[in-house]
Amino acid sequence: xxxTNACRGEAQRFRAVIVDLDNTLYDFGAAKEAACxxxxxxxxxxxxxxxIRAFLFSPYGVESPKAIQxxxxxxxxxxxxxxxxxxxxxxxxxxxxxxxxxxxxxTLLQIHxxxxxxxxxxxxxxxxxxxxxxxxxxxxxxxxxxTPDNSGLKKPDSAIFLHAASLLRVQPHQICAIGDNLVNDIxxxxxxxxxxx
Length: 197
Known about the structure:
By secondary structure, the protein is an alpha/beta fold. It is built from nine helices and five strands, in the order E-H-H-H-H-H-E-H-E-H-H-E-H-E. Helix 1 (28-43) crosses helix 2 (48-56), helix 1 runs antiparallel to helix 4 (80-97) and helix 2 (48-56) crosses helix 3. The radius of gyration is 18 Å and the shape is elongated. Residues 1-6 have low confidence and may be disordered.
């Protein structure tokens, strides 16, 4: 982990922690790959890499089932029943593959026991974020969950981090924000006046 220079030796001042979800608390990329592989196996054509690309470049968002529809159409498959089955297979396989990184549960438990507030800021939908947090058994440790659906804001806008700070009722300089992405997590949290890891 990288700790920004502004924060070295100042851990005692923190009153809250804000965490990202995907690829910070669990390996979302691996879960997505596993789910795409299951869909390709079901269909019997195409490659998991092509389906992943369909999700990544989908104009409807990286989690839209329409990516599966586009993938099927690329393969000249126009079968509504197969599409519905593929979507359900993808959703189930992705959730089954989401596993918390080692130490996540224990770390959040200790932070919670220490009396620090814990918030999460994610670009995932509120529904998906809650589902994943429950699945990895850490939802009980969160004091707030900020998503584009419930805030009207989206990373990398630093306002989403300020919104989380206001919900936690903690000043930004008293928050340590933890994330995996320099553009979406680290820079906007720093712009909001938070320490970052």
